[in-house]
Amino acid sequence: NAGVTQTPKFQVLKTGQSMTLQCAQDMNHEYMSWYRQDPGMGLRLIHYSVGAGITDQGEVPNGYNVSRSTTEDFPLRLLSAAPSQTSVYFCASSSSGQTGTQYFGPGTRLLVL
Amino acid sequence: GQQLNQSPQSMFIQEGEDVSMNCTSSSIFNTWLWYKQDPGEGPVLLIALYKAGELTSNGRLTAQFGITRKDSFLNISASIPSDVGIYFCAGYLSGGSNYKLTFGKGTLLTVNP
Hints:
The complex is a heterodimer.
Chain A: E1 4-7, E2 10-13, E3 19-25, E4 31-38, E5 42-51, E6 54-57, E7 64-66, E8 76-78, E9 87-94, E10 103-104, E11 108-112
Parallel strand pairs in A: 2-11
Antiparallel strand pairs in A: 1-3, 3-8, 4-5, 4-9, 5-6, 7-8, 9-10, 9-11
Chain B: E1 5-7, E2 10-14, E3 19-24, E4 29-37, E5 44-49, E6 55-58, E7 61-65, E8 71-76, E9 85-93, E10 101-103, E11 107-112
Parallel strand pairs in B: 2-11
Antiparallel strand pairs in B: 1-3, 3-8, 4-5, 4-9, 6-7, 7-8, 9-10, 9-11
């Protein structure tokens, strides 16, 4: 199993550009989520999905869109990038609700100029 | 917003010393998880705790789920240089979503050889 994979590893954008961060998992997990990590802030939940076709907002959803058309994939879209979105983005997946371990991908480092 | 208070924010210790860090909250948690994040990587699960009072070890690591269900601690014994990294506590809130993890802001550990 590859676990949770994320692409790209690094990305530089100009303000106003759009892009999609990819996330995929091969563990057949029902739950997937996106976090951003900023210095001194820990990990903050952006959006999450409890299954294909179901998504919901987390703590910091503004400026981001998600969709979940398959169990395996959970892309995160930035429609118009802003410097405030410079961060490290992590995707995670889990099963079994509140007893489930969340497995994290290696992260995407995004710089918005 | 953030509902977990993790302390200390950072620690500088000598190799061989023991380390202790903790998380507290005003809310009750059903599950406590402790993660470690190496530089440039995603968080990796160290220990999971599911019952109040539970004490669990993983090698040199020991963690406990507080009796009140509002706190947890992580101890590392006989630290070594590869223990360097950021340690996060995380938990599932009682009465909250089955899948939404709340994270502490992390403890940055530096070990001097």
